[in-house]
Design a protein that fits this description.
alpha/beta; Cysteine desulfurase family protein; Aminotrans_V_dom; PyrdxlP-dep_Trfase_small; 7-stranded mixed sheet; about 40% helix; 2 domains; pyridoxal phosphate; binds 4'-deoxy-4'-aminopyridoxal-5'-phosphate; Aspartate Aminotransferase, domain 2; single chain
């Protein structure tokens, strides 16, 4: 099996699995227990927290461990808006956010006024439009670091500078596709969210780093864990394993970026000159979005699957929602390009031989379906 769907999730590093197992075995105690072992577990949790903050470069921020980016995004949006809604009601959001942002805002539409920041054809937010939209009623701005469908990298520092003059507006960044993959400067951002399983950690753990976690209403109430912002017995093995996965990914980042860029180029070279193939604008090396114009992305995904290669379709936003992908629509892609699109995503474990196999398979699938292509 050749796994090329790393933007969906990644295989955990072996050593991370070991860390998870060993921590679960040796420190199964509740970090909230006041006995000696509970305190030891709590110290380990604080060490993992400090490591995560340090590796992101936001040592002075609060770090709240969650179950993953979906929960972190919900906590940031609901938790901050609840606190700020008396001072304004406007929310600015890019058009290409993940459903965990879009659907949370949709659920709050009675309470807030959501305005969408336009996207350029290259997949970048339109900064001039953001400048037009920002006013004194804005309490929350949310823009992802790296888009999960095409891989475009958003100008986070430029937005942070633009928002300097608007201190009331909380700036949230969904950094799920960036952390552990590309170096980014998050200074000036008020909160960032991510999931461990996207950078070869395990599933079920993530974090929200917030400039001032104290100004956040909880969305999960209970025994007061995580500074009262996220109750429930803390997933200590997951947090320790996440810190480790983050460290390993960070140490190997430069080498992986160069290697994955070569893979990305190789696949592009393979299909670039074929008729009825469109390569969507990208950004990060690990995500590549290609359209087979005239075909259904699902057909291509299945044809590659028969050859043992796992990729994603982007024709539907999340395959369950059955609507044209929002990111591709926002960048002005045609219906045919959207319907025929697939997402190939590399991970730190992707090997050259697998990319060669993918290229051969893409060639074979193209021959198989070229009659239907426009
Ligand atoms: N944001 C982005 C940009 C993502 O790619 C994902 C995962 N598809 C999420 C949020 C949600 O992550 P999780 O499913 O781990 O909660």
């Amino acid at each position: 099996m050749v796994y090329m769907d790393n933007a969906a999730t990644t295989k955990p590093y072996k050593s991370v699995m070991e860390t998870y197992m060993n921590t679960g075995d040796d420190y199964y105690f509740n970090t909230a227990s006041i006995h000696t072992k509970g305190r030891e577990a709590a110290r380990l949790l604080e060490a993992a927290r400090a490591q995560v903050k340090g590796l992101i470069g936001l040592e002075e921020y609060d770090c709240i461990f969650t179950s993953g980016a979906t929960e972190s995004n919900n906590l940031a949006i609901q938790g901050i808006i609840e606190k700020k809604k008396r001072s304004g009601t406007t929310i600015l959001v890019s058009e290409i956010e993940h459903p965990s942002i879009m659907n949370t805002l949709e659920a709050m539409k009675e309470e807030v006024r959501v305005k969408y920041i336009r996207t350029t054809a290259g997949g970048m937010i339109d900064l001039a439009h953001l400048e037009e939209l920002i006013d004194e009623d804005v309490i929350f701005v949310t823009i992802m670091a790296v888009n999960n469908i095409i891989g475009s990298v958003q100008p986070i520092q430029e937005v942070a500078r633009l928002l300097e003059g608007h201190p009331k507006a909380h700036f949230h960044v969904d950094a799920t596709q960036a952390v552990g993959k590309i170096q980014m400067d998050y200074r000036g951002v008020d909160s960032i969210s991510f999931s461990s399983h996207k950078f070869h950690g395990i599933k079920g753990i993530g974090a929200l780093l917030s400039r001032d976690g104290g100004k956040l209403s909880p969305i999960i109430y209970g025994g007061g864990h995580e500074y009262g912002k996220r109750s429930g017995t803390v997933n200590l093995p997951g947090a320790v394993a996440m810190a480790r996965a983050m460290r390993i990914s960070g140490e190997a980042m430069k080498e992986n970026t160069a290697r994955l860029s070569r893979y990305n180029e190789q696949v592009q070279d393979k299909v670039r000159n074929l008729k009825s193939i469109h390569i969507h604008p990208g950004g990060v090396p690990h995500i590549l979005n290609i359209s087979f114009i005239g075909a259904q992305g699902e057909v291509v995904v299945n044809a590659l699957g028969k050859r043992g290669i796992m990729v994603s379709t982007t024709s539907a936003c999340a395959s369950k929602l059955r609507k044209l992908n929002e990111t591709l629509s926002a960048i002005g892609s045609s219906k045919e390009k959207i319907e025929g699109s697939i997402r190939i995503s590399f991970g730190n474990m992707t090997a050259q031989a697998e990319v060669d196999q993918l290229c051969d398979a893409l060639g074979a699938v193209y021959e198989e379906i070229k009659e239907v292509l426009e």
